[in-house]
Amino acid sequence: MQLELGKIKIEDIQFAAETKVFDSTLFINQEELLEIIGEDSRITNINLDIVHPGDSVRIIPVKDVIEPRVKVKGPGGVFPGFISSEEMVGSGRTHVLKGAAVVTTGEIVGFQEGIIDMSGPGAEYTPFSRFHNLVVDCDVKENIKQHEHEEILRMVGLKTASYLGKAAKDVEPDELETYEHKPFVEAAADYPSLPKVGYVYMLQSQGLLHDTYVYGVDAKEILPTLMSPTEIMDGAILSGNCVSACDKNATYVHQNNPVIEELYKYHGEKYNFMGVIITNENVTLADKERSSNFTAKLAEMLGLDAAVVSEEGFGNPDADLIMNSKKLAAKGIKTVLITDEYAGRDGASQSLADADPSADAVVTAGNANEVITLPPMEKVIGHQNFADVIAGGFDGSLEADGSISVEIQAITGSTNELGFNNLTARIY
Amino acid sequence: MLEGKKTAILGDRDGIPGPDMSNKLKIVHYLNQFFGQIGGEDKAGIPPRREDGPIGPGAALNNSLGEDAEIVNTIICGDTFFNENLEESKSEIKKMLKAINPDLLIAGPAFNAGRYGVACGTVAEIAKTELGIDVVSGIYPENPGYEMFKQYAYFVETSDSAAGMRSAIPDMIKIVKSYIDKNGELGSPEEEGYMPRGIRKNIFAEERGAARAIKMMLKKLEGEDFETEYPMPVFDRVDPVDPIKDMPKTKVALVTSGGIVPKGNPDHIESSSASKYGEYSLEGVMDLDEENYETAHGGYDPVCANKDADRVLPVDVMRDLEKEGVIGELHNKFYTTVGNGTSVANAKAYAQEIAENLLADGVQAVILTST
């Protein structure tokens, strides 16, 4: 499988009469877009806003962030299983509007939705302040139940990103990157003297607001399975997921999985990157045992010498992380885990809900309990009044002047456990 | 509703303004009877006393600090008195510190003197958690005072005996000076020269996490030394208690970390990282219904729990068992908090208080439900 990612630099977004990309600017025909995404009769209102890095803008509560893309060559299409068919992706050519993103917001669905500040101290913690964002603020009918509410907002986000992506179809990319993944037997034969490494990609699957989709399948329904890294780079996995804002993997992060990008860097030179094992984080012990057993077995079948394991969420999934660590280690596979920490606001507590001596190589994305004060912004998109109840907020988080004191777990993407950011924690 | 322990929810200087660095830094020095120049073991029984200015090793400290800072008072307490009259010593010393209101506390150095080390650590804990005063101290790493109280003070490493005073004093002065220069925001242990406090602090690394992970994996693969970013902790193990022999005579309570609360969450228990727990009456409650109960928990799918909170806190089934005589009675209160993202230290503090309340109410067994 060979995938070409054609990256088109976007340095500005503007509303205009026609949706197109010209001179690194994405122009959007608002009416046309609203017609497409507003067709669901359960939606009562949609507002669109464009925000840029450095703007005095706060978006709250954020549900998902998505990168606009389009398939230009080869099988399949964007967001398989939802927008496109179940055709396999990961080969051919896909165009990406690099620097642009779709952010969905609206009335709160659950507790675990986040904040994106486009400037100020909060902007340093969220990776999404660096993009030109089209914010879709979507309201639904009052009697809509939570599961449906989440689904409506998810689809609005995907439809928006897919509509915008189409503007990139005939644009010459500024950069063209090629990634290849060969059939396992061939891949193993390519570099027989190099150690074989893999990636264990844990997908959040605990339930409402804690779901991840693989080709449209809820990840809690899967047995761990093998995937080509190019499939993931081509959008086979997406978020239905609002686990604590800080460490959920927004769809954008799945599309741009940094572990996969980094693993490709030394592939063929220092190791042989064999592929990706996706697994889930279900809530029952039987599921946890089965999935971690299955994961270790697949790693053994691939003949892996080492693996990077990334977690999503915290607490309950710490148990899955540690089971994976133990069982991979028992097969003689050297592992590095990526997690984040809940060490208390003072940083003095134990950081994970589970631990094991096999977990001797851990990368941390920071302590999510650390408190930050976000100054007031000139403009708030969404609903600021939820600051007290979202995960990471507390009674009195929102001050009268519009400033918000919260744990950084309320900031979207701040402690991402795919290692998307530079934030980390150390012993002081 | 009961508030969580204040110490457990305090962040660094939570709500307390940092030291005023525009004037001379006001320092209090804590010493035992020996270094306080009162006497040896025969004087170890003296209660806390407050003296003006620096005493003993304080003189050398004070001289080196020059114009930037001044030891305004010295508090001296006998090691035996301190450890045998712990509560009295603590409250007396707290009173003194409150009256002086210093910007910084220096304690010791204690070297390898066990009782003195614990006293320095205890005083540091009071200063830091109850008064928001930062503490600089010196101690031998194997002194139990370090392990017990390391999070409350910047301890410099000293030798095991007072013969090491000559190097301990300049090391402590270095920390105090840096503390003044950096407005109270000290850097990492390696940068500043204090022993790790076991406090996790966020920093921005040069490379993103994924790049650091691949580099760590390469080192592990090649058998090179690597440093984990999070050393695994050792967890407490709780031994199971003996089985209950006479259930029909047992008073059972329900306690949950699943966040079940009266509708509207009257005490605003947080959806994650709970800073408190709730105590609510079950008097006359036979069944938890949708109109009156819900979950405040933000870490699981709340739809089923909100529809029927008995699924998390099984009051209905317990009432059946009560009626059938399987259990003696259901305790007329339940305790609840949100386990989601709540630190171990907070959880432990709530559990201790809840257990004390349950014992006081004559409860003999608890069903603890989690989610």
Automatic annotation (TrEMBL), chain A:
Transmembrane helix found in the keyword field: no
Q: Where is the active site?
A: C242 (schiff-base intermediate with substrate)
PTM Pyruvic acid (Cys): list the residues: C242
The protein here is known as Glycine reductase
**Keywords on record:** Pyruvate, Schiff base
KW Lyase (keyword) present: no
Any GO MF annotation of the entry = oxidoreductase activity, acting on X-H and Y-H to form an X-Y bond, with a disulfide as acceptor
Question: Which segment of the chain is annotated as a signal peptide?
Answer: none
From TrEMBL, chain B:
Q: Among its keywords, does the record have Oxidoreductase?
A: yes
Q: Which UniProt keywords apply?
A: Oxidoreductase, Selenocysteine
Q: Name one GO molecular function term.
A: oxidoreductase activity, acting on X-H and Y-H to form an X-Y bond, with a disulfide as acceptor
Highest taxon above the source species: Bacteria
Q: Name one Pfam family in it.
A: GRDB
Name of this protein: Glycine reductase
Source species = Halanaerobium congolense
